[in-house]
Amino acid sequence: MTSKDCGSHTHSRRKLIRRIIWSIIFILFIIFLTILLIWAILQPSKPRFILQDATVYAFNVSGNPPNLLTSNFQITLSSRNPNDKIGIYYDRLDVYATYHSQQITFRTSIPPTYQGHKEVNIWSPFVYGTSVPVAPFNAVSLDGDQDNGAVTLIIRADGRVRWKVGTFITGKYHLYVRCLAYINFGNKAAGVIVGDNAVKYTLTSSCSVSV
């Protein structure tokens, strides 16, 4: 075989490899474009969360000055998937409470779950904190709230979700849920006694959701 034949053979081989690479790129582009079109047509909606109730087992401020908060709640949080063709994977969901933007409980993890089309999931996690230091400016406000017999908290749920369209599953998206919880300690008629020092308050509060 002459050097000319070898050069021609090498050139043909490179040309074939380039064609294969461009064919693969074209196929991947078509797949990606198809997924984008399906996604745009279906227009997935965010899940809808409702804070249904909160059972208060403890909510006490101690210390001198009073800046240590011990709290223990069991909340009922429902989530509805409004999509009729898209499922939702909750890979991670951590629930906790804040007071004036300060976290006052530990994070409680909800087990990973899949939510089908138009499906509703209900979770009842405990959120609690023991002798949590409260910022001085919040301690004054919290002391006043206790004297008035009512406190406003924000129940938060932070996590990661994925969307399922047919057999296609997206990457992970951040999920942020914020629920207003107004708890009226001073009005005994506002809650129902469910055990020793435990009172259940019906809230039915729609939550803001960001993805």
Automatic annotation (TrEMBL):
One biological process term from GO is: defense response to other organism
Membrane-protein topology: Single-pass membrane protein
According to the entry, every stretch annotated as the Late embryogenesis abundant protein LEA-2 subgroup domain falls at: 76-178
- Which residue ranges run through the membrane? 20-42
| InterPro entries in UniProt | LEA_2, NDR1-like
Please name one Pfam family that this protein belongs to. Answer: LEA_2
Q: Keywords, A to Z?
A: Membrane, Transmembrane, Transmembrane helix
Asked if Transcription regulation is a keyword of the record, the answer is no
GO CC annotation: what is one? plasma membrane
Which compartments is it annotated to reside in?
A: Membrane
Q: What is this protein identified as?
A: Late embryogenesis abundant protein LEA-2 subgroup domain-containing protein
Q: Which organism is it from?
A: Brassica campestris (Field mustard)
Q: What is the lineage of its organism?
A: Eukaryota, Viridiplantae, Streptophyta, Embryophyta, Tracheophyta
